[in-house]
Amino acid sequence: MAEITPVKDQITADVLVVGGGIAGITSAIETAEVGKQVILLEKEPSLGGRVAAMNLYFPKMCPPTCGIEINLKRIRLNPNIRVLTLADIEEITGQPGNMVVTIKLKPRYVNERCTGCGECEKVCELERENTFDHGMSKTKAIYIPHLMAYPARHIIDPEFVKDESMKKVAEACPYDAIDLDMEAKTITAKVGGIVWATGWKPYDATKIDNLGFGKYKNVLTNVMMERLASANGPTKGKIIRPSDNKEVTSVGFVQCAGSRDENHLPYCSAICCLASMKQTTYIRDQYPDAEIHMFYIDVRSPGRLEDFYTKKQEDEKVHFHRGKVAKITENADNGNLILHAENTLTGKMTTTEVEMAILAIGMVPNAVDSPPPLDTKLDEYGFVAQDNDNGIYGAGVASRPFDVSGANMDATGAALKAINSGVRR
Amino acid sequence: MDPKIGVYICNGCDIGKSVEVDKLIEAGTGQGAAVCKAHDCLCSPEGVQLIRDEIKSEALTHIVVGACSQRVFPELFTFGDEILVDRANLREQVAWCHKPNDEDTQMLAEDQIRMGVAKVKVTTAPVPYTEDTSKDIMVIGGGIAGMNSAIAAADAGHNVTIVEKENQLGGWATKFTKVFPKKAPYKDLEDSGYEELVKKINDDNSITVYLNSTIAKTSGQPGKFEVTLNVDGGSAEFVTGSIILATGWKPYDATKLTHLGFGDSPDIITNIDMEKMVADGAIKRPSDGKPVESIAFLQCAGSRDQDHLPYCSAVCCRVSLKQAKYVREQYPDAKVYIIYKDVRTPAQYEAFYANVQEDDGIFMTKGEIAKVSADNGKVLIDVEETLLGENIQIEADMVVLATGMVPTTKVEDLVIEKSEEAQVEGEEAPAKKDAPAEGEKSEAASAEQGAKIINLTYRQGTDLPTLKYGFPDSHFVCFPYETRRTAIYAAGAVRAPMDLSSAASDAYGATLKSIQAVNLVSKGMALHPRAGDTTYPDFFFQKCTQCKRCTEECPFGALDEDEKGTPLPNPFRCRRCGICMGACPERIVSFNNYSVHMVSSMIKSIEIPDEFEEKPRILAFVCENDAMPSVDMAGLKHMQYNSMVRIIPLRCLGSMNSVWVSDALSVGFDGILLIGCKKGDDYQCHFVNGSELAHIRMDNVRDKLKQLVLEEERVEIHELSISDYHKIPKIFDDFLEVMEQVGPNPYKGM
C-alpha cells in the first residue's frame, strides 16, 4: 500500500531509497519483500526513471514496461513500502543505523482526488516541452508524465501554475483535485540505511563540438533514438529523420561519443556498444534495405551478451568499422551527414555519408550535480565509491555504469547493505 | 458461510456518461449480488468509506468494484484479508475504448459486472499454508562470493552453513597474488583481501563451515530443506531454509587449445599457470628457468570462439593487463605483447587500461591469431587481420593464453538419455516438447541430470536448471536472481562470468533474495513474481489419474511423485502460476481464488445473444501480467476496438485449462482468442514456459474442436508484448473477420 503524501511530519523506516528509476524501484521492493519498512523517494512526479523512456532492452528485445509493470504491481500491494514523489533531499545527518533525512515535498498542484480522467487536459491551452520525449514533442501544462506513470495522477508544470488560464483548468476538474495554491512541505525521515540510486543523465552532446549535435538536425543521441522507436514516442514509433521527416536508408552509429575520452568522460559507459547494436535492430526492422555503419574503438559485449554481437555481425547490412569518428559535417544539399573517421592505429581518415547519425553518448552519474548531502566518498567521476562507509550505499548507475540487469543486481545487493547498515560494525 | 456480495459501480471518468448504470445494477443483482449501487467517484475518500461502511452494515463478504482497472489504486480497495475484492473494469476496457451510449457498449459493461460477480461468488479468502520453517541459509562454495554471502546473511541475523569442497576457504582468491583495481582511482593492483573475510567467518558463531565437504542429498522444500553432506569420509545432516549456490568457475580446458600451441612447448602456458608462477615467487621461462625478455598474451583463448566458448569470459582482458604489470615489475626491460580482438575494460576499469597503456614496454595489437609455433627455444605467433591490414609475426620467449571461465554447473560431454517414461496414450498428449533444440538440450539435460552439486531429490532433476552455456543465470533482464528452483539462488562467477569485485557485490544480491525466501515462506507466502500471495494449489487426489502432466510441466519443479505417479505437492516450492491447473485433464487442481470452476462460472455468466450477424461473441483469455495491462493501455490511449470481445484475465496463459474452450463454445461463443507473452529463446513469460505450454496445448484444443465438429479457425493464439497495445484493435478486428467467414457457432442458443 503506497501512501503518497505522508500524514505525519516525521516518518520512520528501515531503509530509505533515493531515486525511483529501475535500480531504486528494485532496491525498494526487494527490501519491502524481506519484510522491512522502506521509503522510496523520487524527485520527478512519477517512478520509472530513464528506463521508462526506453523502447526495448537488449539482448532479449523486450519492453522495459514489462518489468516496470510487475514491479509497480509489487509496490502497489506491499504494505511495507511508501512512495514519495516530487521529493528532494535537503539534509542527511547521523551515522549508519541511525540517520535522519530532511525531505522537501514539492507541490504537485493536484491532490489525491485526481482520478486521471483527463478533463483538465481538454481545457488546458498551455503546452510544455515534453521532457520524457527529450523535447521532441509537447504535453499540456497539466499532464500525466507517461503511460506507466505511478502515481497515475496529473501534475501541473510549476512554470505554468500561476498563469491566469490555469484557473479555468482547475474549474474543469470534476473531482476538485486541482489546488493551484499547493505549497511545498518539509518532513523528516528516520532510517537505518540509505540506498543512493539517483542514476544518470546522458552526457551533454553539445559539448562534443566536432560531432555536430545541436548544429545538424539529423545528428541525434541514442536516448532520442529510443523515443523515436517507441510506439508511445513523438513519431508513434516511426523512425524518420528530423530535418525532413524522411524515412532513412543509411544510418551511422558513433560509439564512444564523449566516453573513453580524457576531454569528456574518461571512463567507458559500458552499455553503449550493446545499445547501438540494439538500435540497429529498430532500424533494420522498419527498413530492411537500410545500410548501417557503426564506428567503434572496441566492441564491448561481456559474458553471454557476446551472442548478441555475434548475431549482429551476421547481418550483412550492419557494417562494423574500427575507428573513432573524429568529426561530423553536413552535406548542405541534402541534410546528410559525413562521418570522418580515424582509424585509431593507422591514423588513416575515411569518410562515410549517412542520412542520420546517432551519437552513442555515455552516462554521467547524477551525483555530479547533486551529491548526497552528507560527506560521501565519490570517485573522480562522481560515482559513489564502493568503500564509502557513511551509511549511504550506491546502487545501479549511481555506483558505476551498468546495464539494467547489472543495475538490478547491484540494487538488490545494496538493499541488503542498507538493511545491515550499522550492524556489528 | 455463504458469500454476500456487494457491487459498487463508479459513475466517474466517463463511465456514467457512456453506459446506463441502472442496468448495470440490474445485471449485478441478477447475478446474485446482495447490494448493488452506484457512486459518483468510488476512489474518493467518500466512495471508499461507503464500501467500508456497508461491508459492516450489510455483513458483506465479497466486493466487486465496477470502476477503473485493477492496476489503478488497488491499495484503496483493500478491506482486510477476510474481504475478497475484484475489479470489473468499466473505464479502460469499456468507457474509454468503446462508443458511448451504444447498445453493444452497454452489453459489454453488463457482462463485465456479471463476470465480476460470478467470479467472486465462487472464491474464498485464502488461508496461508504454514509449517514450522527454518530461516537458516546454506551457502555452497567458500570463495569470495560464498564468503560474502555468508557474512551478509549472518549480519542480517541468520544462521549460515558454508559447504566447501576444498580444505580451506577463499577459493580462487587464495591463488591470486594481486587483483586488478576495485577502488578509485582504479589504477593500481590491489590485494584481494580474502584473509579478512576468512577471519570474520571464523570469528562468527552464527556461521558453521564444513570443509572437504560435498552435498550427498538435498530433499524437502524451501524453509525445510534437509541436507546430507559427505564430510571427509563421514557425513553431516542439517535443515536449511534457503540455498545460495556460489561454486564459482573452472578454467577452460587448455588442452583443447591445440590451435594456440598449447602442449607444443612448455613455454606456452595459461593465465592460471602464470598466476601460480607469480605466487611461487618469480616469473621464469618454464623450459629453462631463464629470465623473460619477451612475452605475448593471447586474448580470447577459447573464448568468443564458436568452437570453444562462444561467450566472452569478461575478465580475461583485465587479467592479462594485470599479468603484464607483473612481468614489467619483475623485468623492467621485458617486452610484453597483448594480442586481442577487443579490449574489454568496462566502466571505471578504463582507468586501469589507460594506466597500463602508459607503460611503453607493453604493446597492444588487435588481430586474429593464425598460428602459434615453438621454434628453437622461442615461440612464434602469426597474427592476421591486424588494423594495419598486414600479417605480422611476433617472437616471444613465452606465451600466456588468456583462457576463459566455465561455470562449475557446466556438465561436460552430456549424453542425452531418452526418457524412459512411455508416452501416455490417450486423446490428450502431454504438453511436452518432442526434440529440444540445441540450446535447450543442455538446459534440459542439466536440469534432469545436473552437475550434481546440490543433489536435489526433485522429480525434475538434481540441480538448478541452467541457460545454454551451463550458467544457472536468470533469463530475465529485470530480475537477475530469478532461478527455476524456488529459494535456491546463484551468486558469483557460477551465475555469469565476473571478477572478484563483482562476485562480492553479487553475493549481497543473492543473499537478500535468500533472506526474502525464508521470510516469505515462513508466512506461507509466495515468492516472486507473486510475492505475498497466500493462496496455493489444492489437489483433489481421489480423481487423479497419475497422468504426470502437472509434475512434468511445473516450471519450478514443485511437484514430486509417489511410486504410482500421484503428485506430491510441495507448497513452499510453488510459485502459484496455476500451470498445473491448466495441465490437469481431470481438473483436480484449484486455488481458493483461482480455479477451473471460477473461470467456467465467468464464461457462463456472459449473456450470448442468439443473433450472429450484428452480435458475434469472442472470448479472449488474456495473460494478466503483460497482455492485460496492454489492453488497459489501449484504453488509456482511448483507442477504439471491437465491443464483441469479452476478456478474462489468467494468472498465466499456461494456466489455461482446455475445458474452458469447450465451456465457451457450448455457451455459444463464436471464437476464442488466447493472448499471452512471447515464447521461445527470448521468452517473456514470467513463469518461464507458460505461454509455450499454452501453444503446445493448442493441439489438445484442436482435438476438442474436432470432437465438437467445429472449425479449427475458431481458436487463435497470439503473442503480445505489454508495449504492443497499438496492435490490439487489429488482432480483434482480424479475428472477427475470420469469424464472419467461418460463420456462427452452431451451438449458439442451444
Description:
- The complex is a heterodimer of chains A (425) and B (750).
- Chain A is an alpha/beta fold.
- Chain A has three domains: 10-106 and 184-200 and 364-419, FAD/NAD(P)-binding domain (3-Layer(bba) Sandwich), CATH 3.50.50.60; 119-172, no CATH class; 204-361, FAD/NAD(P)-binding domain.
- Chain A has helices spanning 22-34, 64-76, 119-123, 166-172, 222-229, 272-286, 306-313, 404-419, and strands at residues 10-12, 15-18, 38-41, 81-84, 87-95, 98-105, 127-129, 138-140, 142-143, 155-156, 185-191, 193-196, 200-202, 219-221, 240-241, 246-247, 250-257, 291-296, 318-322, 324-331, 336-342, 349-354, 356-361, 363-365, 392-394.
- In chain A, strands 4-3-2-12-25 form a five-stranded parallel β-sheet, covered by helices on one side.
- In chain A, helix 1 (22-34) runs parallel beside helix 2 and helix 1 crosses helix 8.
- Chain A is globular, with a radius of gyration of 23 Å.
- Among the domains of chain B are: 1-125, Rossmann fold; 137-248 and 437-522, FAD/NAD(P)-binding domain, CATH 3.50.50; 251-407, FAD/NAD(P)-binding domain.
- Chain B is elongated and about 95 Å long.
- The interface between A and B is large, with 92 and 89 residues.
Tell me the CATH superfamily of the domain at 137-248 and 437-522 in chain B.
FAD/NAD(P)-binding domain
Distance between the termini of chain B: 34 Å
Widest sheet, order of strands of chain B = 7-6-5-11-22
Structural class of chain B: alpha/beta
- Beta fraction of chain A: 25-35%
CATH fold category name of the largest domain in chain A: FAD/NAD(P)-binding domain
Uncertain stretches of chain B: 414-448
> Given the C-alpha coordinates, what overall shape of chain B results?
elongated
Number of helices of chain A: 8
Q: Can you tell me the CATH class of the domain at 137-248 and 437-522 in chain B?
A: Alpha Beta
Describe the oligomeric state of these chains in a short phrase. heterodimer
Q: Calculate the mean pLDDT score of chain B and round it.
A: 93
Using the coordinates above, name the CATH class of the largest domain in chain A. Answer: Alpha Beta
The total strand number of chain B stands at: 30
